[in-house]
Amino acid sequence: MNIGWADLDRGPVEGGRWLSSINIVTTFVLVALASSFVGTRAGASPPKFENLTGKATGTLQFTDAKDAKISFGEARKVYLVDFMAIGCQPCMDELPELLRLHTELAKSRNFQLVLVVYGWRSRSLLEAARILEVGEFPLYADTEGAGGRLNARAWPTKFLVRDGRVLEHQVGGGKGAYDRWKLAVTRELN
User: Fold this and answer.
1) How far apart (Å, rounded) are the C-alpha atoms in residues 159 and 152?
2) Secondary structure E strands in 15-85
3) DSSP 4
4) Residue spans of the chain under pLDDT 50
5) 156 preceded by a cis bond (ω within 30 of 0)
6) Taking burial as the number of CB atoms within 10 A of a residue's CB, which of 32, 70, 103, 150 is the most buried?
7) Residue 46 contacts by C-beta under 8 Å, 6 or more apart in sequence?
8) Measured on CA atoms in the order 7, 36, 25, 140, is the torsion positive or negative?
9) What is the structure's pLDDT at 33?
10) Sign of torsion, CA 26 29 33 34?
11) What pLDDT does 2 receive?
């Protein structure tokens, strides 16, 4: 299982360009935090993630590219919520597989893939969609703090949710996402 970290230099820009001194400091701090978090130092143990299966999610609400707040909580509907980041290699590796899963299961009105892209908001999500080559597939920003409530601290982190409860939870990802999640989703749809 791979856990990736975003290439934050590809994130949204302010005023059309990066403020280089702020970017350098931010990058340094994030690299230091990420290194200590994923245990890249000699002798460090890997991070431990709480098993969130069965946990109540509360209302999952995200913001789309038109800055509209969208709630995901329809009764009996199964949501695969993927917290991802652009530049995260495992996220990029599994994205085509997750989109394939969505395409195959879209016939079922009881399933929805929700891609939440870290660090992007509002109209910048349209640029994220272009970079990710997802066409018209909707991307969302976590403006309401759902990722924090669910303790999504690494990318990718996925939650299979129905009726306001976590059915399954996975930190990390990469190739093989299609098979793993198709099995989990179809089991919950039946």
Assistant:
1) 9
2) 60-63, 69-72, 78-84
3) B
4) 5-46
5) yes
6) 150
7) 38, 39
8) positive
9) 40
10) positive
11) 58
Output the DSSP codes for 133-182: T-TT--EEB--S-HHHHTT--SBSEEEEEETTEEEEEEE-B-TTHHHHHH
pLDDT at 26: 40
The per-residue pLDDT for 36 is 38
pLDDT tens-place string over residues 137-158: 999 999 999 999 999 989 999 9
CA dihedral 104→108→112→113, nearest 10 degrees, is -10
pLDDT at residue 121, rounded to an integer:
86
**CB 110: neighbour CB atoms within 10 A?**
15
* Integer Cα distance of 31 and 37 in angstroms: 10
Place of tokens 């009105």: 109
Spatial separation of the C-alpha atoms in residues 14 and 52, rounded to whole Å? 36
What type of residue is 104?
E
Report the amino acid identity of residue 188: E
Q: What is the pTM of this model?
A: 0.76
| Model pLDDT for residues 21-43, shown as the tens digit of each residue | 344 334 333 433 443 344 333 44
Q: Where are the beta strands (DSSP E) in 12-164?
A: 60-63, 69-72, 78-84, 111-117, 139-140, 157-162
